[in-house]
Each structure stands twice: as C-alpha cells, then as structure tokens.
Amino acid sequence: MKVSRLADGSPEIFHTLQGEGASLGAPAVFLRLSLCNLHCHWCDTPYTWNWEKTPWKHQDGVKFSKEDQIIELSPSEIAPLISQYHCDRLVLTGGEPLLQQGDLVELTNLLPDTSFFEVETNGTKIPSDDFIKIATQFNVSPKLSNSGMDEKLRLNFEALDLFASIKTALFKFVVCNQTDLDEVKELQSKLGLDPGRIYLMPEGRDAETLQQRSLWLADICRDQGYRFSPRLHVLLWGNERAK
C-alpha cells in the first residue's frame, strides 16, 4: 500500500480527534494514504499528489518528490501500527483512499478490534461491493468549482448517485464564499439529498480564515437545515501534520 510518509520516514498513522463532519471530536486513528486523482488548488495535503514535473497548480507553489513522500507497506505491516493505539475508530483518508480499495478491505480484516471504519473520499471513484460492506461511514466530499478543476474531472455522477443511495454516506462541501452555495444546492437537487446529510465546512488552514468564513456559513446552515462543520484540528493545532 502507498502510505503518506512523514519527515522521519515513518508512515502517517496517528491517534487524534476527528476534526470534521459527523464524527467531530471522536477519538480516532488516521491512516493517510498517498495518491489522489484530483488536484484541488487549496488542498491541505498536496504532498500526497503534487509531484515534481507535474503541471498541477497549488496555492503553495511547492512540488514534492514521490520518493520522499511515499512509503510502501503491506496491510499486514500496517495493521499492528493501527492496533497499538487501542482505538475502535479508524479513519481512512488521503489522498484518495478508493484508489487502494482491495488492500484496504484486506487491512480491515486484520483489525478485529476496530469496530468503526470511516472513509473520506472525493466521490469520483465507485466503491466495490466488498468495500461498501467494510465501510461504517462514508464522508463524501464532492469538489466545487472553487477547487480549480474542470467539472468533468471533479464530479462523477455515477459514483455520486451510488453514494447518495448508501444510507451511511454523508456529504461534506468545502465552502470559500457565498457563490459556492448555488453549486451545493444544485448538487443537492441532482442527488436528491436531504439537507441533514449535508455538511458545510469553511475552507482555511489557519484559525483566522476559518473564523471569518464560519460566521456567515453558520447562519446559512441554521437557515437552510444543513450541518455546520468546523475544522477542529486546525483550530487546535494549526496546519500541523499528523494531528
């Protein structure tokens, strides 16, 4: 499996609090996988995809070496690194986890003491039947035009319709400004989503930006029936990795 690699050479597997969405504040182990099929210009984990000699643009303007940022481990090597924390919730994040579905199914079978498997996905890849069975909760985050990508790349309605049909799938949208809300409402209508399944989260990698965008976004959630999601980890630890 291709896992994000920390500066000390270890895999990015860490015990923290879930900072976003429906499980906000819950203790969890995070497994950050490398590789992503998208390239959002505000992405907070560009080290999982913005490789040297690629044409993709990111607001930081930094390119990364695959050799420095990826460590390859088998599911059997990863399982004990997760089990050591004795936490019953595992968050599979990235990058895009669904690029490595087969290995993740194998990994979950090696974690009998983990009862809650939370999957964070951009919603462009169709999950297999086996993968759907192991996922306790999908956190689907379709990308809006504020991500800087063409709609044909960032939205796969075959996959999104499938996620919409899964009762344990919730939808989270990264919001930068009020014009983003029109896109959210359009996707809500196309997918037939109840507003209670939709989480709106302000984009930002520092507390000041989040505060500015949270005030008006919270009002929108209150008035429209959406759920508001802060970025708890950013408020607590800033933009620090493995937190």
Provide structural commentary.
This protein is of the alpha/beta class and 243 residues long. The protein is 32% helix and 19% strand. The chain contains nine helices and ten strands. An eight-stranded mixed beta sheet has the order 2-3-5-6-7-8-9-10. Helix 2 packs across helix 3 (101-109). It is globular and about 45 Å long. The two termini are 22 Å apart. The mean pLDDT is 96.
Number of strand elements: 10
Number of helices: 9
**Mean model confidence by pLDDT:** 96
Output the strand order for the largest sheet: 2-3-5-6-7-8-9-10
Largest sheet, in brief, is:
8 strands, mixed
Provide the low-confidence segments as ranges.
Answer: none
- Envelope shape: globular
What is the H/E string?
A: EEEHEHEHEHEHHEHEHEH
**Strand fraction:** 15-25%
Structural class of the secondary structure composition?
alpha/beta
Radius of gyration of CA atoms, rounded to a whole number: 17 Å
How far apart the termini lie comes to 22 Å
- Percentage of helical residues? 25-40%
Key words describing this protein structure:
19% strand; eight-stranded mixed β-sheet; alpha/beta; 243 residues; two-stranded antiparallel sheet; 32% helix
Task: Please outline what is shown here.
The protein has 243 residues and is an alpha/beta fold.
Topology:
Layout: E1 2-4, E2 13-17, E3 27-32, H1 66-69, E4 70-72, H2 75-83, E5 89-93, H3 101-109, E6 116-121, H4 129-134, E7 137-140, H5 151-154, H6 157-165, E8 169-175, H7 180-191, E9 198-202, H8 207-224, E10 227-228, H9 232-237
Parallel strand pairs: 3-5, 5-6, 6-7, 7-8, 8-9, 9-10
Antiparallel strand pairs: 1-4, 2-3
Helix pairs in contact: 2-3
